[in-house]
Amino acid sequence: MSHQVQRYLDQVRGEFAGVDDGELASYIPELTRVDPHGFGVALSSSDGFVYESGDAATEFTIQSISKPFTYALALESVGCAAVDAKIGVEPSGEAFNEISVDKVTKRPKNPMINAGAIAAVSLVPGSSPDERFALIQDYYSAFAGRRLHIDSEVYASEKTSGDRNRAIAYMLASFGVLDDDPDEVLDVYFRQCSLKVTATDLARMAATLARNGMNPLTGRRATDAPVVRRTLSVMVTCGMYDAAGDWVSAVGMPAKSGVGGGILAVLPGQLGIGTYSPLLDSRGNSVRSVLLCRKLSEELGLHFLTVARDSRSTLRAIYEPRDDIRVYEVHGDLLFCGAEQVVRTVDRGCDEFAVGILDVTRVDDIDDAAKHLLSGMGTTLRERGKVGLIVDPDRMVIGAGSEFEDFRFSTVQDAVDAAAAFLGVEGSDR
Ligand code: GLN
């Protein structure tokens, strides 16, 4: 553990410990029985180390933080097109429990408000509420890395006081969004909202999203990358309800809040945060959790649009081992923008050499877009009357069986020898 990080987290939590603004969610009677002073935070690194401060081990109900996970499960189970046919992805700017659908499409505007979340439940496969809920419970548990259980008092309380949600579900049925019995769908929705989590669970669930669906604690895949990308996108635009714009500007992390007092926030590729404090603002977001996330984001530079550094040239060196032969050595992680710079630089220097050699020996990682650009470079050079060779011992760019195999070498020396032989032959022809 890093004592510095731990001390920092304790200190930030301490700063807001005295804030007692906000109200407990009283429209679900059982939620007023919690200790209003509870306050915890947990932060999970992307390799699964968790820092905890305050009441990070206190259980509370997940409530609306369930929504992104059921949405993800629906995406995974029936595919994006079937989900999109029933639920939009537009921010509603409305309260979470608004009885509304999109005026034109008659679908719920997004899966983070109750209407969309209830529709998402109906897309989870299952021939009975029990079967559906079992899938949901397993799915959330895989993200948390431990088995999550229901708070049966909150579930019962929510069920008896859930007229608003019943109104929403029946409205959805009337618009053909729900194909199943609205009461059965609602029963599963109430159960999913009543699953108990801790701030630490939320941090772990967030870290699993940050890791593209791989749970860093268990090492098991909970879902796949396209599902995560879609889910995080909707969390960015709709996760904090009518405060979504403010949240993105100030905090800049895909997040979801729940009336149980939790917030889950994700910094993709980096970390997951879970917070707990049950006093809520007028929008249903936990007052102290929002303050805490704001502060952490500001001080630790967690805004997802913070540019850590400009996309720098991935060119490590350019040299000429012989007249007419020029080697371009690239390194690091290659994505489209880096590869584009390399291709442009080679293109620009093209009149000054006969053979261009691209050395990718030191490339750590490369995506498909960059691979495509770099593998096409030889062809472009040939079109311009040049020879293009590549030094690619680990097959970062040129896969087995590629049409460019003849131009691939394992060392720069081999490539230079081949180039020299070629130029020699060409020279003696003249
Ligand atoms: N179960 C709650 C409801 O449906 C969830 C709302 C929330 O957390 N925002 O009203």
TrEMBL record:
Sequence positions that bind substrate: S64, N114, E158, N165, Y189, Y241, V259
InterPro entries documented for this protein: Beta-lactam/transpept-like, Glutaminase, STAS_dom, STAS_dom_sf
Residues spanning the signal sequence: none
EC annotation from Swiss-Prot or TrEMBL: 3.5.1.2
Keyword Hydrolase: yes
GO biological process: glutamate biosynthetic process; L-glutamine catabolic process
Domain STAS: 315-385
Transmembrane stretches, start-end: none
Tagged with keyword Hydrolase: yes
One matching Pfam family: Glutaminase
MF (Gene Ontology): glutaminase activity
Family: Belongs to the glutaminase family.
Subunit field text: Homotetramer.
Descriptive protein name: Glutaminase
Organism: Mycolicibacterium diernhoferi
